[in-house]
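Task 17 of the worksheet. Students: predict the tertiary structure of the chain below and write it out as structure tokens. Keep your answer in the requested format; marks are given for formatting as well as content.
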Amino acid sequence: MGLPHVTQVGTIPPPIGGVSVHVLRLMSVLRENQVDVSLLDLHWFPGKKYPAGIQLEARGRGLGSLLRYWWKVLWSRDLLHYHASSWQSFVVANSVLAFAWKRAFVVVTLHTGNTLPAPHSVGYRLFLHLLGRVNAFICVSEELFEVIKQAIGDGRNSQNILIRVSPYIGSGLDKSPEGSDIQHSTNSAKRSRVVVSGYGAPQYNWNFVCSLIDTMSSEVEWVCCIYGPRDPQYWPAMERELRKRSGVVIYNDLSSDGFVSILRSATVYLRPTDYDGDSVSIYEALAEDVSCVASNVVKRPSGAICYEHNNRLDCMDKLIQAEMRRPERCTMDRPSRKEREALGKANAMAILNVYRGVVARGDAGR
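Model answer:
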């Protein structure tokens, strides 16, 4: 069955981040499969440049983008895929469904771990009500999938599609001139290079990174890639703390290929988050044959080494293990590059099949 026009509601780089990279790569795969797809950019700004081939909806931001989305929900015959970074953004953007019948097909991906409103709270009841009004709900983590599945109960909202799909859709990026320059600017005299990335926000646990830097060998170089929002109450002081330490390099708002080039030069990629979804960055690092160490706050991809959350000694031990698992020394089984790229393609096709399933049910207007 053919698909209607598909509108991705989210953003693509810049700003770089797991969600924006996912949307960009998903749109590429959809075009490769002859799907008519456009972008309603929730983070448009004057002067933002878009890759060739991106069909852009009317420009706007803030309330303008939200009103445009609501208009399409109520009056268009499109298939709308809304990418939410939190349950709060999902509720705000789709609150119109609580008061009106829609004409469009609505698919939502929640790009977070298992964080939901407190059970029996007003936010929780509204979340479940709106969940029942969309056509399909995609979870990026197994934990969130199980929580929602239990919340809605077997058989309730059975007309909806609820599925877990990893956000990783492969990298397929070549080294760019920007990426090559970045690699050569880092300190090649260091024995090891640990790359950490994330928002300038507390949940990315930069305090914990500082404690690791203070404790580990001076032969380790720490490359911190910062993107997305900076918490004004947290990041300025945290950035000063990082810059005080020797062996620390900070990059701000790298492009997608610039970040992947940094990963290619790494010994280990570290993901020390306090909470998380299914991190695209971990998949990107594994796809580049870089060992990964991550906090155990959610289930991590196969091939990543997990440490007990906020346990500095355990993390240090796992970082040493990860260094010994560098590709040229590794004797342990790890997913091959071919297997990981096959996983990325399978994830994209799973989303495309969700679209087809939604349209086949033909229940847009409810």
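Marker's comment: The first strand starts at residue 6 and ends at 10. Confidence is low (pLDDT under 50) at residues 172-181, 327-333.
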